[in-house]
Amino acid sequence: MTRKSRARRMPCPETDALSEKLGETISRLRKADQLSLGELSEMSGVAKSMISQIEKNESNPTVATLSRLSQALGTSVEAMFATGPAESALVQHARIQDVPRLTSDDGLCELRIIGALETVEFVQVYDFRAQPGGELASSAHPLGSVENLTVLAGTLEVRIGNEAWRAVEGETLRYRADRPHGIRNVGDVPAHATMVNILAHSVRAG
């Protein structure tokens, strides 16, 4: 809760621009598919009023909400944040205020998209932080996708169906991400990890 409150007290023009871009992208994709707000709501399970607020940049959606909307619109969460091709083919400087930040439904987890947005169709890289008890629930990625979670601090548990695994600082869990899965901080201190999601076509190509 403290982290969310701090974010509200420190508005940033770059972050506001990303939020506005997100709302515009969702609106554009919805209209391109000739979907009304009600139809997209039925397809995604996200309330019609919430979709309207996101499109108008009046709401800060959670990871789960964006995941449901992206699936209904046939795209990815990362692609909805993309701002176009990089100015340089070799070097990209992502400033702190330029990195998209998402929060979990419980408000205790923060996911920062630190990988290049131009490569999200193949590899997605995140910085993950969770307060004690915080849990990030994710929907299934394309069939064959693999997620790599490297714990930098604390203790994290990954749960898929009835199976669960724990990892502590310095350890890595690699698991199938083509099923609904969740990451939870089961320790007493904040947890920090790097998450790399390799999508299905990248796995097949390798």
Total helical elements: 7
Question: In CATH's first tier, which class of the largest domain applies?
Answer: Mainly Beta
The largest pleated sheet is described as: 6 strands, antiparallel
Provide the gyration radius in Å. Answer: 17 Å
Structural class: alpha+beta
Unreliable spans are 1-9, 85-90
Overall spatial form: globular
CATH architecture term of the largest domain = Sandwich
The CATH topology of the largest domain comes to: Jelly Rolls
Strand order of the largest sheet: 1-2-3-10-5-8
Describe the structure.
With 206 residues, the protein is α+β, with helices and mostly antiparallel strands. The chain is globular and about 45 Å long. Strands 1-2-3-10-5-8 form a six-stranded antiparallel beta sheet. The protein has a four-stranded antiparallel beta sheet with strand order 4-9-6-7. The longest helix has 20 residues, at 13-32. The chain folds into two domains: 2-81, lambda repressor-like DNA-binding domains (434 Repressor (Amino-terminal Domain)); 104-205, Jelly Rolls (Sandwich), CATH 2.60.120. Strand 6 (155-160) and strand 7 form a beta hairpin. Helix 3 (37-44) crosses helix 4 (48-55). The protein has helices at 2-9, 13-32, 37-44, 48-55, 63-72, 77-81, 200-205, and strands spanning 101-103, 109-113, 123-130, 135-138, 146-153, 155-160, 163-168, 172-176, 181-185, 191-198. It contains seven helices and ten strands.
Short description:
The protein has 206 residues and is of the alpha+beta class.
Question: What brief labels describe this structure?
Answer:
206 residues, 6-stranded antiparallel sheet, 7 helices, alpha+beta, 434 Repressor (Amino-terminal Domain), 4-stranded antiparallel sheet, Jelly Rolls, 2 domains
